[in-house]
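Troubleshooting entry. Yesterday's outputs looked truncated, so today I'm pasting the complete records for two proteins to confirm everything comes through intact. If either block looks cut off, that's the bug. Protein one:
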Amino acid sequence: MTKRIEELGWRDTPMGEISLRRRLDPTIGEQVYEVKLGDEFLMSSMFVVAEEELARLGLAEVTGADLDVVVGGLGLGYTARTVLQDDRVASMIVVDALDEVITWHREGLLPFASALNTDPRSRLVHGDFFALTAGPDGYDPDRPAHRVHAILADIDHSPRHLLNPRHAPLYTADGLRQLATHLLPGGVFGLWSNDPPDDDFLAVLREVFAEVRAEVVAFDNPLQRRTSTNTVYLATVVNRSQTR
């Protein structure tokens, strides 16, 4: 008999207790994988449309081939796996502050995670995305100050609802200017948010980036029997070749 709820992994971390569990959801009749930090749900395999759209919409903003991509936040891996579905991607670094989450993927506790372990373009890095963004060396320890074509982040609930107050500087104009230094001309910053589009945050993005917009992503919510929405922010660095 299948257990209704099974805890697959648990660890006490500086951010709180993090756990991976699998449960049989009677609403959809399928196994659902969930990551929780304390009492907060960070990710559920039931709701992944917006996480996948973060990758699709972000990469659609970038032209050319041999793309280098950074994903901030691993979670259940849906954004990262969608990045790898784009044949133009040459390399992808996924940065996560919780080594436990990376271990769950490497140990095969998530049956859909094999691509992140076997694709030679993929590398999972244990690190603080926010600290790396604020520093001069970027995200690749083997290539200091290497700039990339896309930075796609899915860590906080929204620019206003943070998992940790230490993340707040990223969402300021100064923090975003520093992030932009890690992007190539024409590169894109994509950000997932659980909240509706925030006009104040869009205004901050426009202080830094050449093109900015918020895409509302709708998806079916079987638990609430309605359509729910998330937001994907897209901000593009000016492409100097197009300004001449």
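Protein two, checking that the full record survives here as well:
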Amino acid sequence: MSIHFEELDYRPTPMGVLTLRRRRKPGTETDVYEIKLGDEFLMSSAFTAAEIALADIGLSSLRHDRLDVVVGGLGLGYTAQAALANPRVGSLVVIDALPEVIEWHRTGLIPVGRELSADPRCRLVHGDFFTMATSAGGGLDPEAPGRCFDAVLVDIDHAPDNLLHPSHAVLYTARGLRSLSAHLKPGGVFALWSNDPPEPAFEARLAEMFGAVRSHVVSFENLSGEEEVSNTVYVGTKKDAA
């Protein structure tokens, strides 16, 4: 393959064909990494502002140190990297349903993976985040069942009503959000990335389960630089214990 485009890996999975590609950004010496599932783009290193903002915004309201954090969805690793850049983060569990993506990080095929794998605070876990978050028992850390966290940051589906798989829908219901909140410490934060503008119905559902809810619109330039696009970061804060 040419220096301008390379398919780094191609894997059939139960969810569809997974590919990792590298391409050279025109007119630069910058490599862009992309993950595709079938015909859908899951993530591109050309657009990382919202993934980074998910961690920055999600952790900003927490005031103490030694934060225990979960990231649902590894992707190209930018949310996890941003979380680890926060010196107050003491531990990070990153859950992904695709072992191939975890392997790409551990072998350094994805550049950020070298940093994540070298950080002693970070652990990459193969698992179904949605099942782990919404089922009784187990929890979000296979090594510590029932463990609670200061923050759960999720970037998997395109939006609460635009899912990669129908089985994910339960998380966005009142029951699913209630189950997820049980994995948070009092005052803990649930932050969710969405490709779509804030959705009032979902905001109302979050407000039922969490004591405080805010929707942050994150804007950034598109690939051509001709106009801005925006994503949403929803943040729900669990009520402190009485």
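Both blocks look complete. Sanity check on protein two: The chain is about 25% helix and 35% strand.
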